[in-house]
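Revision sheet: structure tokens.
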Amino acid sequence: MEKRYTVRQAVTMTGVKSYVLRYWEEELDLRIGRNELGHRYYTPFDIQLFLKINELKNRGLQLKAIRTLIPQEARNTYPSDLAKTGSEILEGEAVEIEDIPVGTPEEAAEDMFMEKQKTSKEHREDDKKILEFQEILERLIHEEMQRKKEGEYRCRSLDEAIRKKQQARREAAAACDGTKNKRNRQGCR
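Predicted:
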């Protein structure tokens, strides 16, 4: 069974308030799992996703931009949809699934081994997807930071040109004032 975290644990792990997590869930169209009572729970994938979103927000990206960065499959599926055990929820009722006879103990052990291999393969695929997602985010963040640096450089050079122009005007005005004062002093004598 996949590890699940409560809202309080998610808040502690991410450093983000619970109402912000709910807001992000709504604005970014994330599907967060819920237990039998309808309470939210978070998976390790959700925690990683929230940490990345928080990092992007701290770097200055808006939620609209972040939404375009999140893969569609991360938004539309519960990671736990694939791993429900013991019961299914049908129209709000919990219905127990009957245990199917396994056969011999050897067959049961082989089935358990195959299930572990399958789960291990799914985890490797999930890890691969998370790493790929992180690489894409890092590349996009790097590109955005480069654009910001270029914009800041352009603004700095414009500011410098404006300051030089203002200084030249002040010096010209001071020179004009100096000649006016000389004329006024000569006219008073």
